[in-house]
Amino acid sequence: MSNLFVVAYNDLATANQVREKMLDLAKQHLVELEDIVVVERREDGKIKLHQAVNYTATGAAGGALWGGVIGLLFLVPLLGAAVGAAAGAAGGAATDTGINDDFMKDLSQNLQPGAAALFVLVKQASPDKVIPEIATYGGHLVQTSLSNEEEEQLRAALEAARGGAAAQEAPKGA
């Protein structure tokens, strides 16, 4: 079973940094991600989703490739590629896996203008290694799918990791 974590940040840049850190941790096999999305509330109040995977573009590229191959069989590769790209883009746009877009938009209405939130759907993780890595960025845990007890343990671990990082950064003799 996957767990959802939503962490709010004061700005888009920090949320993007944490997303990049999470993707790096995934490459190190410390966390297995199902979906990761940065949601920005712009100064004008509009909500913008920054998806990690663009299914429309991926579908269009795959459709163009296969359409071109099929088009070669019928001696019209350009038409085949164009039809394949259109079909692939339509299929990619209809494919939405992971976190529900409407849920992210609704929850992000509570963000201050200019702020952002990171929505992470995690299959598996090594919390003792992941939490200290992301706690240094700050943020506010908005919502999880964990039980109340597990969520409180996570909040305590984040606070402890943040406090430890702040103590390490403090100048000696201060």
Automatic annotation (TrEMBL):
Family annotation (InterPro entries): DUF1269_membrane (IPR009200)
Pfam families per UniProt: DUF1269
Protein name, entry field: DUF1269 domain-containing protein
Organism name: Streptomyces aureus
